[in-house]
Write a structure and sequence with these properties.
The structure is a homotrimer of 158-residue chains. By secondary structure, chain A is α+β, with helices and mostly antiparallel strands. Chain A contains three helices and six strands, in the order αβββαβαββ.
């Protein structure tokens, strides 16, 4: 199969100066990075990573812009996981839902703006297949002091 | 197709003095209000809206009863989104899961009671098809100071 | 149908000195304990129960080890619910996703370690079918002061 859509997606990523990371953050416990079952794909937590680049609360430790960058990086890691799960993007019918948890200062309420950093990357790279419904949450803390955690589902051709 | 079930659902809503809102709160970012994929429907965050009627923490800014009203309004908005997604309720096989996030004072623990305001509306209006599993969460803050955020999945006839 | 896999799963549970609880915590509101729709199963909140054995924040009210025990108990309750939903485990294709909410002290960040208490039980008892993707959250409070709340999806043969 000629992986037309996959190539196009990777080109759109390259236009942004980005590439799929070869080593997204590994699972932090005894679980799988993804599951494919009955046409629905489930990703484990996608984060901006544990290298300390992004850590703590948006609105206190990080600015809105830094939060958006963290969300974008989490989305980039998610793209790699979907690519790995489906051996490319051809079988991706589309993203389904993105639940975005933004570690937030107690007086910060612009989580949707932060998460647009992830949503815009999905929309740009995957086009129609990148569309997703979304929920945003504003916890004051997340595991391992991470700033962004995305819980993502997608649909694939069986 | 005669939309029998849809008409009955709207009648049950009218008995409660309610109607499907014509303009539920729009998406707060670069995402879709819903997604239909492989028989599973995903709704973006359903809230009690941003008009300030319901804002802040249940148990501090709002009473339990006000929280229930906020949950009911979020459920009402969800019904409109499902109606829009499926062009009525005929193709709705049933609600699947409702994850209910209740913005809560630090000493308030009755989130399930608050969310019954949503669950009872679903059960009443949709009958058997309104049944759902549920999880309840108690964050101290939510985006844009909203009080209730529902994350909802449902199943539909392909 | 000879319930081979079910019997094996229950034997693996017995090897750990455990059995499926006959009376897992009932729903805390007007919702169903589970839903089966289009091949995807949805469980209502699985908790460590309301008997007070496990209550409050890990890292303050409970140790890491106690949190792991609470997570294990929630997973055990989940196994009963899946068993009830599918009349055994034969039709279980596999767990899909586990979202684990760990009630946490403000300076506790090892939620993944806590949730391994649940994941290891699933992996041990269900083998390949127990694999799951996972997300971990660190709220400072949960409904009814519970310590662990698991939101679980799975796939089943229609």
């Amino acid at each position: 199969m000629i992986q037309t859509f996959t190539i196009e997606a990777i080109q759109r990523l390259a236009e942004l100066g980005m590439a799929l990371p070869q080593d997204p953050p590994p699972p932090a416990g005894d679980y799988a990075p993804y599951r494919l079952l009955n046409g629905i794909g489930f990703l484990a937590a996608q984060t901006s990573g544990y290298d300390g680049s992004f850590q703590g609360q948006v609105g206190r430790d990080l600015t809105l812009e830094q939060g958006q960058k963290a969300a974008e990086r989490a989305a980039l890691n998610a793209l790699t996981r979907i690519y790995q799960a489906l051996d490319g993007f051809e079988r991706l019918i589309g993203l389904a839902h993105v639940a975005g948890h933004v570690c937030s200062a107690p007086d910060f309420f612009d989580q949707p703006d932060v998460l647009n950093g992830a949503s815009r990357l999905f929309n740009h790279v995957l086009g129609e297949r990148g569309k997703h419904s979304r929920t945003a949450y504003a916890p004051t803390q997340l595991p391992h002091k991470i700033t962004i955690e995305l819980e993502i589902t997608f649909a694939y051709q069986i």
